[in-house]
Amino acid sequence: MWKTIKRWYHQLGSPVYFYRFSSAVLPWLLPISLVVLAVGLAWGLAWAPVERYQGDSYRIIYIHVPASSGALMGYIAMGVAGLVALVWRMKMAEVMLKALAPFGAVLAAVSLVTGALWGKPTWGTYWQWDARMTSMLILLFLYLGIIALQSAIRDPRQAARAASLLAMVGVINVVIVKYSVEWLQTLHQGSTLKVIGESSIDDAMKWPLLISMLGLWLLYAANVLMRARTEVLNRERRAGWVRKLVNRP
Amino acid sequence: MSGVWWAALRRELTLIWRAPADMAQPLFFFVVVVSLFPLGLSPKPELLALVAPGAVWVAALLAVMLSLDGLFRRDQESGALDQMLTAPVLSVVPVSAKLLAHWLLTGLPLALMAPLLGYMMQLPVAVLGTLMVSVLLGTPTLTVVGAIGAALTVGLNRGGILLAVLVLPLYIPVLVFGAGVVRTAQDGLPTDGLLAVLGAILALALSLGPLAVALGLRISAGD
User: Where would you find the membrane-spanning parts of this chain (chain A) (predicted)?
Assistant: First the structure.
């Protein structure tokens, strides 16, 4: 088991192998993600039962929760990629870090917008400085910071390493921000979906939510692979295999 | 090792001491920004006392951040930074001396000035001590965390705005707890817990921060 993981790690660390691997995976991953997302959203938006107190307005949960979780997971993944890039100087981790940022930033923005739209009918306001909303706003700032830093440094390797350090500091920051705003009066409902223990959400609402989440995560993964492929080609443009690929000897 | 550290500290202090105007600027900025609030809002004492903790803290935050932009730039232009990174000592040693010198001549004066500004913002006298302690505990964290951003942007010619974009989100926990401590004191509640949290964040920043700054400088130097 451990040996297999190690071999995968080393193989995917090679740009050539990654390019071939992603060429094989992507034609499947992208359509599958779109289908899963469409199924989850359609089920959630049209067929899931109406909520007792919030009526139909709760249905935005099927966009809001997947987007929020995707944004958070994406940033944590950037922190991990940053650690790998700085400690083991692995080129593909640098590429991944860069590829993770744009879609994650979009998801954070989607989470904020859908949260605001959901807040109006249920809390009576579009915006409150509530703990989770504030944390998500900061997360968006951190994403934008990473993108800004990367675009300011011309050398791609140096840009990626700088972003790696910033992402790691950012992950620590996200944790502290979460606790720092928690002592403010919090308006947000607690999590209804739990990995461990009984979820307080009904099965008829839970399954479409889980499917939408899975679909969005797969779409995120497909987006990351596509961006990483472009970045790999750009970085390795002088390498023999890329020249062969584009038929220019 | 400690000889190098002391020499680096002396160098920094001497450099800053010989350009006293640079040292005065963050402090002057701090005073000016805080005095904009009564002019912009309204001189009503109750209103000012309400916004005072946040106003003083935001001004302190910006003062430290702006002062950090030049922290490594001059050394980089003169080549001293490269010497520092290639010297046969861990680069954390001179870097931590540099950070301490920066705090002594920026953060410490801000903390000493904070009670006066708090008083001008109509904070009750009993709260001013808490304000000073909170700024005293918070500014070293601001220096260290901001220096990570300064290290990463040292080679870029449009560093200023980028530094703000990178560093200000990282300053938010210090702002929340720093201003929160003062507000808690205003309400007459015990502040030990929140001060302890500020201290904990400081401990984290002091233990890992200088390493991150040194690494950031290495990255910027193209390592």
Answer: 21-48, 60-88, 100-119, 131-150, 162-181, 207-228
State the average pLDDT over residues B153-174.
Answer: 86
Q: Which residue of A has its CA nearest to B154?
A: A153
Asked if A173 lies within 8 A of B172 by C-beta distance, the reply is yes
**CATH classification at residue A138:** 1.20.120
DSSP A185: P
In this structure, is residue A229 part of a structural domain? yes
Is residue B144 within 8 A of residue B210, CB to CB? The reply is: yes
- What is the arithmetic mean of pLDDT over B6-35? 88
The answer to whether residue A159 sits within a structural domain is yes
A122-148 residue pLDDT tens: 777 888 777 778 888 999 999 999 999
Cβ–Cβ below 8 Å for A141 and B216: no
Q: Which of A4-8, A132-136, B14-18, B163-167 has the highest mean pLDDT?
A: B163-167
- Helical ranges in B45-107 per DSSP H: 45-68, 73-78, 80-86, 92-102
B142 — contact with chain A (CB < 8 Å)? no
Chain A hits for B149, CB-CB cut-off 8 Å, are: 166
What is the domain extent for residue B108? 2-220
Q: Measured in Å, how far apart are chain B's first and last C-alpha atoms?
A: 23
ipTM, interface predicted TM-score of the complex: 0.87
Instruction: State the average pLDDT for chain A.
Output: 84
CB contact (8 A) between residue B166 and residue A144: no
**Cβ-defined contacts of B192-196 (< 8 Å, 24+):** B195/B130, B195/B133, B195/B134, B195/B137
Average pLDDT of B56-68? 93
What pLDDT score does B160 carry? 77
Nearest to A111 by CA among A47, A184, A60: A60
Residue A2 lies in a domain: no
Residue B187: list chain A partners with CB under 8 A. Answer: none
B108 by Cβ neighbours in 10 Å (0-12 / 13-18 / 19+) ranks as middle
Count how many domains chain A has.
1
Radius of gyration of chain A (CA): 20
Domains in chain B, number = 1
A16 and chain B in contact, CB less than 8 A: no
Contact map slice: A 151-210 vs B, CB within 8 A: 152-153, 155, 158, 161-162, 165-166, 168-170, 172-173, 176-177, 180-181, 183
Contact B170 A170 (CB under 8 A): yes
B157 touches chain A (CB under 8 A): no
CA distance A28 to A139: 31
Domain that holds residue A163: 29-46+58-186+198-245
B180 in contact with chain A, both atoms CB, cutoff 8 A: yes
Does any domain span residue A38? yes
- Of all residues in chain B, the percent with pLDDT exceeding 70 is 98
